[in-house]
Write a structure and sequence with these properties.
The structure holds two protein chains of two kinds.
Chain A lengths: L1 H40 L2 E7 L5 H15 L4 E7 L4 H14 L3 E5 L3 H13 L4 E4 L10 E5 L1 H15 L3 E8 L5 H14 L3 E9 L4 H14 L5 E4 L2 H14 L3 H4 L1 E6 L5 H6 L5 E4 L4 H12 L7 E4 L2 E4 L8 E2 L1
Parallel strand pairs in A: 1-2, 1-3, 3-4, 4-5, 5-11, 6-7, 6-8, 8-9, 9-10
Antiparallel strand pairs in A: 10-12, 12-13
Helix pairs in contact in A: 2-11, 3-4, 5-6, 7-8
Chain B lengths: L1 H49 L15 H26 L7 H18 L4 H24 L5 H20 L20 H6 L10 H19 L1 H11 L1 H6 L4 H27 L10 H12 L10 H20 L4 H19 L5
Classes of the chains: A alpha/beta, B mainly alpha.
């Protein structure tokens, strides 16, 4: 009996492995043939090292880069995912250099450990575009990043406007030991400065929707009047909305929920469905990276630092692609 | 010397009196043993009342309103359901690290079936529960038949189930309209709303009731059935259990299967609570479940403890979180206070080993 069951399970495992390998091999084969085909037409190969594709926002960044590059048949982008591992990302940059790509785009996991590989790439004559997070020093070709303080400030100014300068706000913060969390809070405080907007309840929700939902339940139980909820990301704002709806007193309709990031399948959809009053874009810079890459590759001058603006999506402008702030 | 001889009979009497007293005290303590957990919970609740802010609407102490308590139960239902299954496994002397990932897989699978394929809730939940049972049976099989350490076997399942959750969802949150191919494009399934809305007359949500019912059922199973007694026997002394004719492997497999099923049910509640299936859901929840079991007083060594302790442990953690949350305590103090209160609760309920 025991032998039989052992055999059966071993066979199952074996079959699964073989099936998996066959599939992988098939994929790899098709990838090889397609790259050979493309290489004949491609003038430029760009290596893109993403620090962690586990985050939806970074998946979006890769998608933006891919979409922008697909409009230029002379470009071919090799995407690599460092899976949130600094050592892997260092290796990826060195591989790109060894491979002799024409340009590298990197969205680094950490500044310090990736400074050296980036410096080496630039020294080897390969231009490097750094996205979202900086590396140390100035041995890179171009940095493109968004400004969280600015986005927080715009969010604050928006609430001041729609609440006519007076109201009670719940702030559901992102992880406050992270820079984006700190900056989105700092900017928001600048934005509501001088108005009668008051933060009556705040909590660190670690960017997580379940945490935001629990904290909002506490806020709802404690305060009979809440005019707005400022979520440091869209899922937090959505979690707060779910909590208000569950309360069953219709407060999800009277409270203004706003969030940040504006991913197409998250924030923008929530605005379209009337859940969020507004979401503020934290741009990935993917499209701009390709624009700058083309300039550099064609030998034209590119700026050293580019700070991206933000867009606001509200029910009124969401179908027109938002409004630049 | 003379003095001593004279007082000797009195001393003897005194000593025997003291012995009797200490015996009484020990008996009382022993009887109280079961209630120490409740004492710890009562201490936490007392803290809650002392530090309770007043509701802005009515001016009442928030901690004395029924709403706060139903909210707390609702927020902790998932941890509670996980802890029920975890208790069974820990009673056998094992551990299940995979429950958080299985929860995430179940949340994703049930949402996919209902949102992407438009299934009715009952078949969707049935399939999800079966998937949870399958994960549990793989754990149990590896542990009892192949002698893999529970820590290692369930660690492997923890990684694999998370991978499976990301694979079936394509790495995105499963919610209406997340892909054009999904059957539901607008509202979330009615089941989600039903699961998280208060049932008339009781004032509790079906998600909360699922927790309460599962803990009551398992409490009865553990206390009054042969299976329950075999769990303790296996956890207390595996070799003795084997020699007395208990089929140790089947008992263990059953415990892991039940644990997988509770993880799947917690996953369905999670999806209903968030109104979406998040492949990342349940991350590190296994630690919360283990904490609830241990704080209740069930021993990680196995064979000691019970389901009632788990209920107490879940409530202690839940109320500590709620007290810190309604007072909007800053994050760093929250973590410090949580650590302190957990140690305090364990010290109060810790039973003397005599």
């Amino acid at each position: 009996m025991r032998k039989a069951s052992t055999c059966i399970s071993l066979v199952i495992v074996l079959v699964m492995c073989v099936a998996g390998c066959a599939r992988q091999a098939g994929k790899a084969k098709s990838a090889r043939t397609s790259s050979r085909r493309n290489n004949n037409q491609c003038a430029y190969v760009i290596g893109m090292s993403q620090c962690n594709r586990g985050e939806p926002w970074r998946v979006q960044m890769d998608a933006d880069i891919g979409a922008a590059a697909s409009k230029h048949p002379e470009l071919k982008v090799l995407f690599k995912d460092a899976q949130n591992n600094t050592a892997t990302q260092q290796a990826q940059v060195r591989e790109f250099v060894a491979q002799g790509v024409n340009l590298i785009i990197i969205s680094p996991k950490e500044a310090l450990p990736l400074t050296k590989p980036v410096t080496e790439a630039v020294a080897a004559g390969i231009p490097v575009i750094v996205l979202d997070r900086k590396v140390q020093g100035d041995k890179y070709t171009c940095f493109i990043g968004a400004d969280n303080v600015l986005i927080g400030r715009k969010a604050g100014e928006y609430l001041v406007k729609v609440l006519h300068g007076k109201g009670k706000v719940v702030e559901l913060k992102g992880l406050m030991t992270s820079t984006p969390g700190q900056e989105r809070h700092k900017g928001f405080m600048q934005g509501i400065k001088g108005s009668d907007l008051e933060i009556i309840f705040d909590a660190d929700c670690h960017w997580l929707e379940p945490d935001a939902q629990c904290e909002m339940q506490s806020a709802l139980a404690r305060f009979p009047q809440i005019d707005a909820v400022y979520g440091h990301n869209d899922p937090s704002a959505h979690g707060a909305w779910v909590a208000a709806k569950r309360e069953g007193e219709g407060r999800e309709k009277t409270i203004k929920f706003i969030g940040i990031d504006s991913l197409p399948r998250e924030g923008i959809r929530y605005v379209r469905d009337g859940i969020l009053s507004a979401t503020f874009e934290y741009p990935t810079g993917g499209k701009q990276a390709i624009d700058v890459a083309l300039k550099i590759l064609r030998g034209r001058e590119a700026p050293k630092n580019i700070t991206l603006g933000t867009r606001i999506f509200t029910n009124g402008n969401v179908d027109k692609g938002g409004e630049v702030l | 010397m003379a003095d001593k001889q004279e007082t000797s009979p009195q001393m003897k009497a005194g000593a025997s009196q003291a012995r009797r007293n200490s015996l009484l005290a020990r008996r009382a303590l022993h009887a109280l043993g079961n209630f120490r957990g409740i004492a710890a919970l009562a201490a936490v609740l007392l803290l809650g009342v002392i530090f309770s802010p007043r509701s802005g609407a009515t001016g009442k102490l928030m901690f004395l309103t029924s709403r706060l308590h139903s909210d707390t139960l609702f927020e902790n239902a998932e941890y509670g359901i996980l802890a029920v299954g975890m208790t069974l496994v820990i009673l056998t002397g094992g551990i299940d690290l995979s429950v958080g990932s299985v929860l995430g897989f179940a949340a994703t699978l049930s949402s996919l079936l209902m949102i992407a394929y438009g299934w009715a809730p009952v078949p969707a939940i049935a399939v999800t529960v079966m998937a949870g049972a399958l994960a549990g049976s793989i754990n149990g099989f590896l542990i009892s038949r192949f002698r893999v350490q529970p820590f290692v076997a369930t660690l492997a399942m923890m990684v694999a189930a998370r991978g499976a959750a990301k694979w079936i969802s394509g790495g995105i949150k499963v919610q209406p309209g997340a892909r054009e191919t999904y059957v539901l494009q607008g509202d979330s399934p009615h089941f989600y709303t039903w699961m998280t809305s208060k049932v008339g007359g009781i004032g509790l949500e079906p998600a909360t009731l699922l927790f309460i019912i599962s803990i009551i059922v398992m409490l009865l199973v553990v206390r009054y059935t042969g299976f329950g007694r075999r769990l303790y026997a296996v956890g207390g002394n595996e070799e003795a259990a084997r020699l007395s004719g208990i089929r140790v492997a089947s008992v263990k497999i059953a415990a892991y299967v039940l644990c997988g099923i509770t993880a799947a049910l917690a996953g369905v509640s999670n999806a209903a609570r968030l109104q979406l299936g998040d492949p990342e859901a349940g991350f590190t929840y296994e630690l919360d479940a283990i904490a609830a079991v241990v704080i209740g007083g069930t021993s990680l060594v196995g064979g000691q403890g019970g389901m009632f302790f788990t209920l107490v442990g879940t409530l202690i953690i839940g109320y500590v979180n709620k007290i810190l949350s309604i007072n909007a305590v800053a994050e760093h103090f929250r973590l410090l206070a949580k650590g302190g209160i957990i140690v305090l609760a364990v010290l109060i309920q810790q039973r003397k080993k005599t």
